[in-house]
Every structure is written in structure tokens, then in C-alpha cells.
């Protein structure tokens, strides 16, 4: 299974009055991580959308383990948990890029749809992308 | 069980290039809803923090059902799913404020801690708040 | 001159590690305020866009006077500083909704364009909207 | 004069329903750019704050020239426009990292203060930082 790592420098505007990264921003880090994961496989979102494939978010979850501080460099690891004909589940881990300390774990699931958000079977409409994801999932 | 409703007008800066509210913002709507829920019970976050009680987020989840559009008025319903000695689970529903259409469901769980994020038993450190939450949970 | 006031409750996710509202969020408050200002004149953005009129931001500025704290209720006052054939300047003041203390002042300027962001003369393409804005500016 | 360049990959959550980066996010890009500019001079914000020097934002302005699209790689150039005893002005340009196309120009000004936001003269409280900034400004 491919585990892709994306490094992110925490920004001041992502912190809150508790002096730590606001919990909603982890959901954004997950998005950045899966975007870079797909890019690393040769399919930027842009290229996927040009192939007519959209991946709206169906569910998202996060489990917070340890606060992230301002200016910390984090490493977000992303992998495919399950690839099905019309949907995809991803797993995430957020760690300190240097110490490896675990900050959070998460998941997201996505449908494959066309531009009008009508579900499609990825294998049929974009077999090449399906193959690439299949390979990364194994 | 008390189900508290908070109305929110969707802002342009909350939309994304798909023309809909970005999924990360639902997590922020949940926060607004639980803040107003606590305020409605007589305990604004501010007042809780002044009582020395903090409620860091332990987990969060969202299930997206239907896109929210710009300028839509939404209604976020929040209730206590489970109150324990040192933690709390909340449930959420996001609906169109006028048609009642369900946009999303969600949950969050929180620990009770002191300022230094050390877990505390709410019943002991703030029995009055515990009583108010207990009543709202039933 | 019409001065329209919009009340906003400051959210936790808008604060930063200094314990105050992050300065970038004032620009978002300005947007909320001008949206409500236009709505109060009978022209929500939605309705303007349906009339084929877009108002992209050309410039924005803010002058910060006093920090805004979490959970504060603020009042954002918005008015038309100058209405021209193809553009519009707006002024803003951010105040505490209760004490009136001045937190910030700001401006934004906007072009009138069609959907493809090609400049248009508002007076010609949407004389009714032009009339309403003209009246509010005087 | 030192002109420091920071590369930023535009995120999906930074776009809006017009399909472009929301104008408020440029203010955040400016912050990222000045943070990296200071880091490149040996003074991360963290290190400055540990030296007891804070730099609250006094004013900010942006002039929008051309929309930024999702997934674009931008380059934000930041430099010192004026260094005074108790304040600092910075200039910014946002360009496409590959074509160099100008997206926006901006400015920000900052006071030097202590932790309690009381103005201080940088030259006196932190002569080393003052010297570094002076050199970068020339």
C-alpha cells in the first residue's frame, strides 16, 4: 500500500485562542494531503476533473491526540483504505515532521461522480485512473 | 433531551470552486452550534473557561448528505448524546432553515479539562455546570 | 447617505494564538457587511448575479485600532463612499456592538462586470440597481 | 533591498464560488510571506516572540490584478518598505510562480510591541533584530 507524506508548515491564521491549531483545520490538512497523494500518482484533481471525474466528500472524521503548535512542521500521511467501484476511503495520520509524534488520525470517504455530481463507476468511466488507484491501494 | 437550534447565514468566503460550502466549514458550524447551545443553557464558553473548565475536542465526524449553497440560511441542531464524568458527546444536524432539508449529520466528543488541558471530573470541579448539562441531556 | 449596520458574533475559529481575532478575518467581516447592506437595499448578491451583474473586489484596506476578542458581538457599519459608472467604493467601521468602541476602519472597491468579468457600465446594464445604489450613496 | 520569495500552492479550501481564490486569503498569503521572510533573516516569529518582540498588524492593503486559480503555484515576494524605530512597513507582490504574471500587490504595517502590546523601540529592546532588519531594508 502506498503511504504518501505531505509536509505542511502550520500558519498563524490556523491557530486559535487556545494557542494551538484549530481542530477544523485538520480537515483542511487532510484535503491537502489527499491532493498531493493523487498528484504523486499522476492525477492532480485538475487532471481528474478534466477527465470528468469528481470526488465529493461523503464523510470525514478526525481523532485528536496532541495539539499542534504554531510554526510546527507537520507531516500528513495519506493512504487508500478501500477502493470500490463508485467510492473510495482514505486514511490519514498527522505527525510532527521531525519527532514523528502523532497529533491526529482521520478518515474521509468520497464518491466518484460526473460534473453534475451523478455517481459513476470509476472503472468504466476512467479505467486508467482506476488502475492507478488500485495499484496504490495494494 | 434539549435540541438547540442555531441559524447561520452561509458566507461567500465559505464556498469553494464547486460553488458549494467547503466541507471543512461544517466542522466550524458545529462549533458555532455547540457554543450557542451552551450559551442557551447559561454557560457561554467564556463563562465556562472562567469557571476553570475547558472542553478540548477529542473527535469529530461529519456525514455529508446534500450540498449547501451560498447565501442559504441553515439551521444547525445540537444536542447532548452522552454526558460522562470526564467527557461529553454531542450530535448535530445541519438543515435548510426554511425547507428543513437535511444537509449533514455530525458528532463531536470533548474532554473536560483544566486550563493546562489536564482531565478533570466535571461533577466535582463544577457541579452546577454538570447539573445543567445533565438536565439538558435527559 | 445610508449607513447599514450588521451584527456579527465572533467565532472561536476566527481567533488566533494572540487570543484575538486574526486580522484577515476583518476582510471577511467587511464582505458580510456589504452583502447585508446590499440585501437591505433589495439586492442580495444572488439577485445581482441573476441580473448578470458581478462585483469583483479591486482593492481592500483595513486599519486596525483595537483587538477584537472571542465571543464579542461586533457591529460592522458599511456605506457607499463613491459610486461611479463602472465601479464602487465602500467604507467600513467595525465597532463593539455594545460599547461602540472602534476596532477597525476599512475600505473596498469593486468593478461592475458581467459573468466573464468583463467591465460593464451599471447604469446601462442594470439601471434599477444603479438607481438604488445612487439613492443609498446620497 | 532584500526581496524574499515564498512559494505557495493554492488549496481548494481557499477558492470560492467564483472558482478563484477568495480575496481575503491574499492577506493570509502576505502573512505566510512575511513569516518566511523573517525566518530567512534568522528570526522566526517564534524566536522574535521569545526575544519579547511582537509585531501586531496596524494596517493592511491589497490591490487585486488577476484572479488566482485552484492548484496554481504562486510566488509571494516580500520586502521592507520602511523601517522606523517603533514600526515597520512591508510590501508584497503575488505572482504566478511559473509565468511571473502579477496577481496582486499589497502592503502591511506593524508596530513593535512587548507581550502586552505596549509599543517598544526595537533598536533599544532588540538591537540585533533591528540591525538585521536594517540590513535587509537597504
UniProtKB/TrEMBL annotation, chains A, B, C, D:
MF GO annotations: fatty acyl-CoA hydrolase activity
Keyword Protease among UniProt keywords: no
Pfam families, alphabetized: 4HBT_2 (PF13279)
PROSITE patterns on file: 4HBCOA_THIOESTERASE (PS01328)
SUPFAM superfamilies per UniProt: Thioesterase/thiol ester dehydrase-isomerase
Keywords, in A-Z order: Hydrolase
Family: Belongs to the 4-hydroxybenzoyl-CoA thioesterase family.
Protein name: Acyl-CoA thioesterase
UniProt organism field: Candidatus Allocopromorpha excrementigallinarum
Amino acid at each position: 500500500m502506498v503511504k504518501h507524506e505531505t509536509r505542511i508548515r502550520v500558519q498563524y491564521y490556523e491557530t486559535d485562542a487556545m494557542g494551538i491549531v484549530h481542530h477544523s483545520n485538520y480537515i483542511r490538512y487532510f484535503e491537502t494531503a489527499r491532493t498531493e497523494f493523487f498528484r504523486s500518482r499522476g492525477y492532480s484533481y485538475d487532471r481528474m476533473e478534466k477527465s470528468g471525474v469528481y470526488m465529493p466528500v461523503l464523510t470525514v472524521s478526525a481523532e485528536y491526540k496532541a495539539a499542534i503548535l504554531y510554526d510546527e512542521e507537520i507531516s500528513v500521511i495519506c493512504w487508500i483504505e478501500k477502493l470500490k467501484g463508485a467510492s473510495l476511503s482514505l486514511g490519514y495520520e498527522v505527525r510532527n515532521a521531525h519527532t514523528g509524534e502523532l497529533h491526529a488520525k482521520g478518515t474521509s470517504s468520497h464518491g466518484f461522480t460526473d460534473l453534475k455530481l451523478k455517481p459513476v463507476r470509476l472503472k468504466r468511466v476512467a479505467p486508467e485512473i482506476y488502475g492507478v488507484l488500485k495499484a496504490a491501494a495494494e
